[in-house]
Amino acid sequence: MLALGIWWTSRPPEHILGLDVLFSGKGEATPEPDNPPAHASPEEMLRLAATAWATGEGDKALAWLEVLRRTSPARLPEWAYAVAARGLIEQGRVREARTWLEEGLERYPQDLTLWEMLAELAFRQGDWPRARAAYEHVVRGSPQHPKALWHLALLTSLDSPQQAFGYVRQLTSQETYASRAQRLEAALIRGMAQEHPGARWVEIGRGLAQVGYWDLALEAWRRATRESPEYGPAWAYLGEGLARTGRSEDAWKAWRKARRLAPQEALIPFLMGLQALREGRTAWAVGWLRRAVALDPTQPLYHYHLAQALAGMRGFFPEAWMQVQATVAARPRDPLALRLAARFCLAHGVNIESHALPWLRQARALQPEDPETLLLLGWAYMTLEDPDLSYRFLHQAWQQDPGNPEVHRLLAIWYRWQGNLEQARVHEAWAQKLESP
Questions:
Q1: Distance (Å, rounded) from C-alpha 149 to C-alpha 153?
Q2: Residue 347 sits in a domain of what CATH number?
Q3: Average pLDDT estimate for 158-183
């Protein structure tokens, strides 16, 4: 079985695709495919393609494989289809890449590398049924394949939450996916507990959004509006999904409908305020966020985002600080409120020792093992230039939640601060890997 690894973002070494068997003479000049050697055999063309690929000449490798496909298609091995598809993807010729993969699977239906590549390609194109079918092939051949299990958990969330729950349960202790799997698992549990169909799909969509899959979340929220067309929060979240996927005009239409259905629902002006911030209309955003706070003054998130919006306006920082304090005053024993208030201080570099640290200590007393509290404590002590305490808390946060990219970003900063560039790069790479879909 071949294994490409992160084939989409990095050129695989020649041995991963089996090219080391064919490749000889690194640096050896290879003939051009449009001027092949006289009487070049299929074996010679494969060797030339492998040599070109291994020396970084992906276009030439692809050209040789296309010649062979025209002249002797029956001689193409499994790796040739994978290399050709990869080369086409790099050129932006996605439809042709998919054709190569499908042809390869007709000849080599048990090759899991080709199935995985087809699944990823279909997933990125938004062809959910094809992606799901391809990932199911991967799991049949490799039942513990984490990437395939994760994508099946995502895709089955849209029509079979119970099945998705079964997939996600297999990933909650898998380092790369554990943090995201736990968040999606919690959302599936909340969703399946809802009797109201609109509320069910709203919760599942929220879970998909929390792990970064806005296109899938949008599909869940579309289903919520279909099954409960008079349910205001469904239209509110549909607006958020549309906004996050680049359809802001449709998003505002959805929010206007949500407001007609549920004029006292604080969530709606809150989401409208966030979108106004993303569009750079800060004053308008402040108006919507004020409305959200007025409708529900106990929600820490509303106070926090209003504070952030005010902090971005000249002359409004004192009022922003008042909102931060209101965040805690509204729910003084709520760890979320305490963490949000501390995060504001850290983001703006203010009142860290006088307010942020006491709030974080209180949050830790309420939830001693909470990874975000530990992360924020590490950030606070790094800001206060205490390397020992900052590392201690960041390391604990990493142990508690190894799949959180933010903790890796902060550890990378810590290692750079201490002059250890090698470890900094390790954590930067981890953060990038965890942030990629």
A1: 6
A2: 1.25.40.10
A3: 89
Question: Of 297, 319, 354, which residue constitutes the final position of a domain?
Answer: 354
Q: How many residues does the chain have?
A: 437
Domain boundary among 322, 354, 386: 354
C-alpha pair distances (Å), 279 with each of 246, 271, 276, 404: 11, 12, 5, 27
Residue 259 within a domain: no
Assigned domain for 422 exists: yes
- 23 pLDDT more than 50: no
Q: Residue 333's domain spans which residues?
A: 266-354
User: Looking at residue 47, what is its pLDDT?
Assistant: 85
pLDDT value of residue 39: 58
Q: Does the pLDDT at position 16 exceed 50?
A: no
Vertex 205 angle, CA 202 and 208, to 5°: 155
Cite the DSSP H helix spans in 39-177: 42-54, 58-71, 78-90, 94-107, 112-124, 128-141, 146-156, 161-169
Average pLDDT, the chain: 88
pLDDT at 437: 61
Q: Do residues 345 and 410 share a domain?
A: no
Give the dihedral sign, CA 312/316/318/322: negative
Domains: count for the chain: 3
- Please check whether residue 139 lies inside any domain of the structure: no
Residue-by-residue DSSP string for 267-333: HHHHHHHHHHHHTT-HHHHHHHHHHHHHH-TT-HHHHHHHHHHHHTSTT-HHHHHHHHHHHHHHSTT
Q: Is residue 58 part of a domain?
A: yes
State the Rg of the chain over Cα: 26
User: What's the confidence (pLDDT) of residue 45?
Assistant: 82
